[in-house]
Amino acid sequence: MEKSMASRKEKTMQSLLRYIPGRLLGPVAALCVWCGAALGADHFVVPGSAPGGDGSAAQPWSSIAEAFGNGVVNSGDTIHLAEGDYGAVTLQGLAYDQLVTLRAAPGTLARFSRLVLDRTRNVAIDGITLWPDPGSGGGGALVSETGQGNVLRNLDIRGRQAADMYTSWSAQDWRMDPRVGAKLMGSHSILENSRLTGLAEGLGIIGPDATVIGNTFRGFGGDAIRIVGDGALVRFNNIADCVKISENHDDGIQAWARGPDGRAGQGVLSGVTIDANTILEWTGPPDHPLRCSLQGIGLFDGMFEDLTISNNVVSVSAYHGISVAGAVNARIVNNTVVNAVQISRKGPWIQLADHKNGTPTLDSLVANNIAPRFLGGDTVRAANRFEGNHVVIYPVRDLEQDADGAWRLHPDGRLRGLSDPLSTPPTDRTGQRRDPSDGLDPGAFEGS
């Protein structure tokens, strides 16, 4: 029995050591090279190992609490987590000058039932899988973050363990234990390259200057992303498969301003960028009974200042493809909006409007977009610029759909080269630089 346990421990450590830079020099040399690097030292946690270890590969810590409880971890260090179930993890008050990273070894499943970063600074969580314990109830966010400069990377956040099966869930299944994927409440938070699946709500961006980049949201029952924090950057995200389980008007991305009392539409939300995202209402069975009618990007309760909405692909069936109500110095440029279910002249639309309370929208630009319809009243059009937009009722005439569901211009289509260089973003939906030598293209993609 002791030999068997020792063998399992040895295999676990070999798995962890495999991913440390310098490993070709051998485990000991690898550790020495890495420990001497500017990025800091490596430490190890193996659940179930004997307490009292020193965090080395030979004597790993038995828990995350033990790792942070002895004063050994310093700025720039990495704590490697072996496969196992870590339960609910709360890190409180940790502050570092450089990132300290908790990282699951690639190819292993290090699972948390919940993660709370409470007033932490420069803490990174990398490669962790999260789902709630069955029957735990209570709802709430699976990841909750406050503090400054925290990074969430390569996470797999699930409403339940088998979240990929969300198309087989009933309405009762969805309502039984609804979960929010993550809430970013700190400043300068980052969520990147993560998957959020089978959730009542995907992500709430509450703190200022958050970066949300390269994530996938699939199967959600409300909004995939909500933004109420100034300076948010939301880029290169893929959003798909909204289900109707409540009376909420579901949005791929929604944002609103808040007053001192927290009421929507009472203050100013500034500096938000929503760029190069793909929003697809549905990719599952067409006749699914819970398929929702999704709104794409909805900003209904301004004011919004210095707002950019660019290079997004939106395929939805609700009227609001992209709508902004109450803005100053907003740019809505080079987006592609199509109807997800039918040919329609009614929508979805791209709309620029005054605030609900009558405050005018000023000094804003709507240009180089493709959509079935564009809305803006006479006073809005007089105070703002609508230029070079293209009404496309029959998308298959001018657009073709990629394997990932996004819509591009036909290679030899009539809209090629018709984007105004003065208002075209420097890059497109893929992040490639737009080359003006052959003319620039309207919509989200440049070239074929």
UniProtKB/TrEMBL annotation:
Residues forming coiled coils: none
Annotated spans, Disordered: 410-448
Domain of life: Bacteria
Name recorded for this polypeptide: Right handed beta helix domain-containing protein
InterPro entries to which the protein is assigned, alphabetical: Beta_helix, PbH1, Pectin_lyas_fold, Pectin_lyase_fold/virulence
Protein's organism: Meridianimarinicoccus roseus
Annotated ranges, domain Right handed beta helix: 180-337
